[in-house]
Specification:
The complex is a heterodimer. Chain A is mainly β. In chain A, 0% of the residues lie in helices and 57% in strands. In chain A, strand 5 and strand 6 form a beta hairpin. Chain A is globular, with a radius of gyration of 13 Å. Chain B is built from no helices and eleven strands. Classes of the chains: A mainly beta, B mainly beta.
Chain lengths: 111, 112
């Protein structure tokens, strides 16, 4: 199936730990994104990469570091996790059009 | 600053009725608008989009209306079905920007 996929789907960890979320798209898209969705369902963009180049970096703590090994993958590494990092993280991608295609999300719970 | 918001956070309709979900935006430079549907436990799914040079666009059972004068966007769903239950988001893009700005979302509930 052509899609945007994320792993893991659920992630439970303790404060202070470091964790990574992975995203892959097989749609042939050039641009990929990370979004954070809080408990009130508000979706906020965090980062965007185009052909492995960072093009959008919103006001996000530098504990969050995206990495794009190739244009089909965009991973998100989070250092020193805090309670406030608990949220659902979505990866998305797009080609030349403006519509973005979203992955299924990763629910991160920090205890 | 730019913002996209919704008038109603929740909407309940009877099965078979038409649903109208509204969205207001404040950035007059916005030239592209999109609606997403998010079902429980899933990622947002593209429904329909519209560019600012249009005021209406129709899809299958859905219609998007754009009123640039009052910076208002609406999504109409005809003959609402139980499978339409979800949170609906509008989002906008400004010319030259490469990001979508999302509204807060409206939860649509279908009553049998």
């Amino acid at each position: 199936d052509t899609a945007v996929s994320q792993t893991p789907k659920y992630l439970v960890t303790q404060m202070g730990n470091d964790k990574s979320i992975k995203c892959e798209q097989n749609l042939g898209h050039d641009t990929m994104y990370w979004y954070k969705q809080d408990s009130k369902k508000f979706l906020k963009i965090m980062f965007s990469y185009n052909n492995k180049e960072l093009i959008i970096n919103e006001t996000v703590p530098n504990r969050f570091s995206p990495k794009s090994p190739d244009k089909a993958h965009l991973n998100l590494h989070i250092n020193s996790l805090e309670l406030g990092d608990s949220a659902v993280y979505f990866c998305a991608s797009r080609f030349q059009g403006l519509e973005q295609y979203f992955g299924p999300g990763t629910r991160l719970t920090v205890t | 600053g730019e913002s996209v918001g919704l008038h109603l956070p929740t909407l309940s309709v009877q099965e078979g009725d038409n649903s109208i979900i509204n969205c207001a935006y404040s950035n007059s430079a916005s030239d592209y608008f999109i609606w997403y549907k998010q079902e429980s436990g899933k990622g947002p799914q593209f429904i329909i989009d519209i560019r600012s040079n249009m005021d209406k666009r129709q899809g299958q059972r859905v219609t998007v209306l754009l009123n640039k004068t009052v910076k208002h966007l609406s999504l109409q769903i005809a003959a609402t079905q139980p499978g339409d239950s979800a949170v609906y988001f509008c989002a906008e893009n400004s010319q030259g920007a490469q990001k979508l700005v999302f509204g807060q979302g409206t939860r649509l509930t279908i009553n049998p």
